[in-house]
Amino acid sequence: FIVFTTIQIILISIVTPLFVLKENIRTSDDFAKLVTSSLFVDKTLLIKAWFEDKNFVLLTAPRRSGKSMLLSMLKHFLEIPVDERGTFMERNYSINYKLFKERSLNIFKEELFFNEHFGRYPVV
């Protein structure tokens, strides 16, 4: 029998292709755009799962199954907020903070984790 870790189960549910969508619906890999869509499914708890799982994660999936969107979600969560001049900003006033708060995303409800990790890491 096969034992799956939490991270594997989450990844399986994320990368399952969405064949139910109509062809004329445009998709995007930008988390900030997708989160405002009525089709958005909140998978932000994957961020916490990645931090808690000490193993490396290799994400492989078919085309158009959300891999780039997941990376965009991580970028919006982790990146240190700066203004247009490159000056560090208060995390609570950043566009990304508003994105997670106003949409009441699942990861925002995990207050301790959110406060410890949100906007604390340089992202390339």
TrEMBL record:
Coiled-coil features, chain-numbered ranges: none
Residues annotated as domain AAA-ATPase-like: 29-88
Superkingdom as given in the UniProt entry: Eukaryota
PANTHER family in the record: AAA-ATPASE-LIKE DOMAIN-CONTAINING PROTEIN (PTHR34825:SF1), CONSERVED PROTEIN, WITH A WEAK D-GALACTARATE DEHYDRATASE/ALTRONATE HYDROLASE DOMAIN (PTHR34825)
Name under which the protein is recorded: AAA-ATPase-like domain-containing protein
Record organism: Homalodisca liturata
